[in-house]
Structure formats: C-alpha cells, structure tokens
C-alpha cells in the first residue's frame, strides 16, 4: 500500500459495508467511497478478513452468477484493502464470540479481526452495532 507511514487509522470492513457499496445503498455506499478515497491516498488502512470476502463472493454468485463473483474478486484484488487469512486462533476466537453473542459466524470473524488489530469495524449490521453498545467492539456505524 502506498504511503503506509502516513496512515492515520485502520478500519476493518465487514460484508455489510462492502455489499452496501456494491449495491449503492446509502449511507453505507457513501461512507465506503470516502474510505476508498482515503485508502488510495494512504491515509487509512483497510482490512477485510478472508471469511468475509468469501461471504461477499458467495452472495454475489447467488444473486448474480459465478462470473460476476469472480469479476468482483478480481476488482477487489486491485484495490487498497488487505485481506487477512484464517488462523487457528481466529477460528476459535470467532467461535467463542459466536457462542456468546447473537451474530453470524462470518460477522464474528470481522469482529475478532477488529478486536485483535485494535481497529474500528465499519458496518451497518444491527447485531454488530449492539456489540458496540455493549463495549465489545468499536463500531464505525454506516447504517441508518
């Protein structure tokens, strides 16, 4: 990533915010466009867990087709977002979180990623917002 010494902050993206951006649903799409601009300028580091990327891929394939999902994957690979791989410790941290809270398993990976790297999680998902209200995670709210 260009200008990483100038990065002001790190933000973790969940599936919700990227799907809002792809569907041009406001206010999430506008917030994501602003984050892309900051990331290209080297002012923000964007992180996405590969489980969440997989969720975006399968939802795109399901709603459109596999070719559209493959094209989206290629598009994202050229953008300023760091994709984190699965580790054993993250799998069990996400499983513990899922066992304790009402969130999806994929969302648990986004939450655990944000907690582990000390970053805000950008989302409009009400289940994650509730975790923010409980002090479990620092949420950058992008929903209505």
Pick out the low-confidence regions.
none
Q: Give the tally of β-strands.
A: 5
Instruction: Just name the CATH architecture.
Output: 3-Layer(aba) Sandwich
CATH superfamily: 5'-nuclease
Rounded to the nearest angstrom, the distance between the terminal CA atoms is 31 Å
Name the beta content range: 5-15%
Instruction: Evaluate the radius of gyration.
Output: 14 Å
What order do the helices and strands follow?
EHHEHHEHHEHE
Number of domains: 1
- Number of discrete helical segments: 7
CATH top level assignment: Alpha Beta
**Would you tell me which CATH topology applies?**
Rossmann fold
- Neighbour order of strands in the largest sheet: 3-2-1-4-5
Structure, explained:
- The protein has one domain: Rossmann fold, CATH 3.40.50.1010.
- It is built from seven helices and five strands, in the order E-H-H-E-H-H-E-H-H-E-H-E.
- The chain has helices at 15-23, 28-40, 50-63, 66-77, 88-100, 105-117, 126-133, and strands spanning 9-13, 44-49, 82-84, 120-123, 139-141.
- The protein has a five-stranded parallel β-sheet, sandwiched between helices.
- It starts with 8 loop residues before the first strand and ends with a strand.
- The relative contact order is 0.19.
- The model has no long low-confidence stretch (mean pLDDT 94).
